[in-house]
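Just wondering, can you check both lines?
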Amino acid sequence: MREFEVMLDDNRFLDCVEAGDPDGAPLLFHNGTPGSRLLSASWHRVAAEAGWRLLSFSRAGYGTSSPKPGRTVADVAADSAAVLDHCGAGRFAVWGHSGGGPHALACAALLADRVTTCVSSAGVAPYDADGLDWLAGMGEANIEEFGMLAQGREASLAVHLAATWRDVDVPADLVWLREAVDPALAPRTAAVLPSLISPEGTSVPAAPERPRRDTGTGSSTSAPPS
C-alpha cells in the first residue's frame, strides 16, 4: 500500500491511500461513517488479484484530512476529482459503503463524465427525509456513533477518545460485497471474493494513524449544493 497526501487549492490536505494493482482499473472507495482511509491488508491482496487500482481517502475532518466546516455530501465530488487527478486517473469506478454510499452517488452525479460504475452498498438515506425513522433497524454501534454526532463535534470527540476501539470482523462486514459487487463490476472480481469472505474469519483491530509519506498537489473545484 502507498500512503500519500493531496493538497487542494483551498489549502486543505486529504489523507489518501492506494492499494491493489497500480496498473489496474481505478476504483475509488468511500468508507462508511466514521471510517477513514485505513484499509485491511486483505483488501490490498484482493484488489491486486482482481486487477483493481484501489484508491481511498479520509473525508474532510476524518483521519488527518483537513476539516471543511459546513461541507455537504456533494462536496466530496471535487475532493475525489482532486485525488484522481493527482494519481493520473481519468475514468473510474466508485463504490461507497454505509455512510460512504451517498458520497459515491454524489461522485456519479457530479462527475458523470468520469464515472464508469457506481455501487452504493447499505447506503444511508438523507437524515431529514420526511417520515423516515433514520435509526430504525441499525445496529447498536451505529446508534451509539450517530448519537454521539448529534451531540456536536466537541462532545462526540470527548466520548470517542474515552472509548475503546472495537475489533472489526472483516468477513462478516463484507458478506454483502458478493451480491453488491458481482453484478455491478467486472466478473473477474467475483473469482477472488471468496478468498476475502472466508468462513475462518479475520479479526482486524483498528490501526493507529501512520506517518504521512509524500505530498502532491491536486485541483479542486466547487460542486453544486446538495
